[in-house]
Amino acid sequence: MFAVVTEHLGGNHVRIRCEDGETRLGRIPGRMKFRTWINEDDIVLAEPWDWQDEKANIEWRYKGQDADQLRSEGHIDSLTA
């Protein structure tokens, strides 16, 4: 699901607000940690954990132009960033 990063907590953790209205603790996996910089107000693709719904893995970060296109197509209307 789509989410917006609201706070960078340090290390490999961020606070995200998902399109379902929930605020979750997002974990940046090792494969993205040093290759993809994730900042506040970035649009990301998050996958909530099956066993703890308050946590999620960050799967992808959308760059500015891609995020603008998602907004124009109406995919992330509920997220404001």
In short:
This protein is α+β, with helices and mostly antiparallel strands and 81 residues long. Helix content is 16%, strand content 42%. InterPro entries: NA-bd_OB-fold, RNA-binding_domain_S1_IF1, TIF_eIF-1A, TIF_eIF-1A_CS.
Descriptive overview:
The protein is α+β, with helices and mostly antiparallel strands and 81 residues long. It has one domain: Nucleic acid-binding proteins (OB fold (Dihydrolipoamide Acetyltransferase, E2P)). 16% of the residues lie in helices and 42% in strands. The chain has two helices and five strands; from the N terminus they run βββαββα. It has helices at 30-33, 64-72; strands at residues 2-10, 13-18, 23-27, 43-48, 55-62. It has a five-stranded mixed β-barrel with strand order 1-2-3-5-4. β4 and β5 (55-62) form a beta hairpin. The radius of gyration is 12 Å and the shape is globular. One of its GO terms (molecular function) is RNA binding. This is Translation initiation factor 1A.
The whole-angstrom Rg is 12 Å
CATH fold-level label: OB fold (Dihydrolipoamide Acetyltransferase, E2P)
Q: What is the CA-CA span between the terminal residues?
A: 16 Å
Helix content: 10-25%
Estimated structural class: alpha+beta
Domain S1-like: 1-63
Family: Belongs to the eIF-1A family.
GO molecular function: RNA binding; translation initiation factor activity
Organism: Haloarcula vallismortis ATCC 29715
Secondary-structure blueprint of this entry?
Blueprint: E1 2-10, E2 13-18, E3 23-27, H1 30-33, E4 43-48, E5 55-62, H2 64-72
Parallel strand pairs: 3-5
Antiparallel strand pairs: 1-2, 1-4, 2-3, 4-5
